[in-house]
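Data availability (excerpt). The following record was deposited with the supplementary files.
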Amino acid sequence: MSQSVVHPAAASKAEATRAAIVDTAERLFRTLGYQKTAVADIARELRMSPANVYRFFPSKAAINEAICTRILAGLEHLAWSIARGPGTPRDRLRALFRALQEQTITLFFQEKKMHDMVGAAMQEHWPVIEAHVDAIETAIRHILMDGQAEGSFARIDANQTAKIVHTAIVAFIHPQVVEQCADDDDQAALADAMASFVLRALRPHPDD
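Predicted structure:
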């Protein structure tokens, strides 16, 4: 049975078109908001037909997911740069709390329309959110296992503990919660206090 072969040049052109669609959609999302931006708006900016946009993305929701993935990838990169970075595991875990809280606040105040999209993604359980949660928890687990290896953290199940630690951060990084507490000047201090609380809970037990 013969198989169709995609020419490298054609594949490259298709990828370039997909990237242009996402770039244009993201720019419109930042100015109009993701809900008010229609596929027709994206197509018009690119001087192509909506039907051509649908050749590369099956729906507006698929474009939404692509852009949300970009935003969350930045947070994931930040988390991993800390998890694999210098400093003791205790210092890295505290830095992770602080950095994620700061980035979420920055997104809320400087990129409100994108913040709203991430909030909708979480509330509506877009598939990209599950992957994002897994990435953050994996970065946390990496720090926990480093701490266990050096003896600064209790030898408890790292997978389950990573989920618990992530839950402790949620109050400072979940879009809806952050929005409700946006006027609270103590959010950074609370995030640091929560990190201290978690670090105390992670101390080795006497019988470990």
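Summary of structural features: The chain has ten helices and no strands.
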